[in-house]
Amino acid sequence: MRICLLILGLLCQAGAARWSLPVSLLGFDAQGHAVTTSTSDGVTRLEVRDTGTGQLLRAAPVDDPGPGVAFSADVTVAAWVRADTLHVWRAGQDVAVPAAQNGLAGTQVLALSPDGTQLYAGNFSGYVQVWNTQTATRERTLPQRTWGVNRLRVSPDGQRLFVGTQGGDSRVYDTREWSFTALPDVFAKTVHSVAFSPDGTQLAVADGVDPARLLNLRDPAQSRTLPRPTAPCDVTVWRGRCATGPVTLNFSADGQTLLIAHMNGLAVLYDVQTGRPRTQVSGTEPGQTLLSPDGRTVLSGGIWHPPLRALNVP
User: Fold this and answer.
1) 80 C-beta neighbours (distance < 10 Å), count
2) CA nearest to 192, candidates 303, 106, 54, 56
3) Which interval of the chain is the signal sequence (predicted)?
4) pLDDT tens profile 220-254
5) Which CATH number fits the domain that encloses residue 278?
6) Is the pTM higher than 0.85?
């Protein structure tokens, strides 16, 4: 174990790669397995892998989905947009719908309910379409106050939907009655820089610049800002400024740990109850770093900088 830095009173350890594969990470299924895509011999596959070992558990060919894939909790339903066409993959069948039809033009981001029955399509013009994947019918439209829906996130229980726009409007919808709560001054840097806690009562948000925030959806007065570590600048941006902002985050399955990965390659694991850092993993990729649901492994890389690596949590 190599000691690299003392930050916030914690020992920062360089993560030892448990396994490494040329795949792209999409997220995790309900069982805590890693959901990935890979391409070989010209065929792209949607995969489910053991998070601890990287072992392939099952795979199915899909039509070149790219990184913006939404999937159900059991990975039996998936959706993506490519070349102005919406693809809905269900039970091994791929249904392609031209995005110019049925109000899908300008779709930028997708999300699926955990059971795969509801598809949410965020539009550049500033609205979200709600589709039933079983009947292929549009059930409702959610107009936003500003343009450019580019962030969607569904809570693990499927009862809340976060909608963020480029114009700065952010809302959390109750998917049972479709009422919503407006969130002031919330900007999420990437698709994976907004995450619901497992019980859906808290929302973590990272904007790539300021420290990450943990918003309490039941009692906004209990919301808080999490301390950001200071470290030597590994990535510089305009005029020598250090790019240390948080860009990806997610919770462990028990809701007790929150990972926040920063642009300088440092991932910090926080105790959700106290808001204090627990430990750190260095050498991660800024574009995509997530904590496994069991809290034992950090998966990093696999989109812009393959391969995907599984790093041990100190």
Assistant:
1) 24
2) 303
3) 1-16
4) 999 999 987 765 555 555 455 555 678 899 999 99
5) 2.130.10.10
6) yes
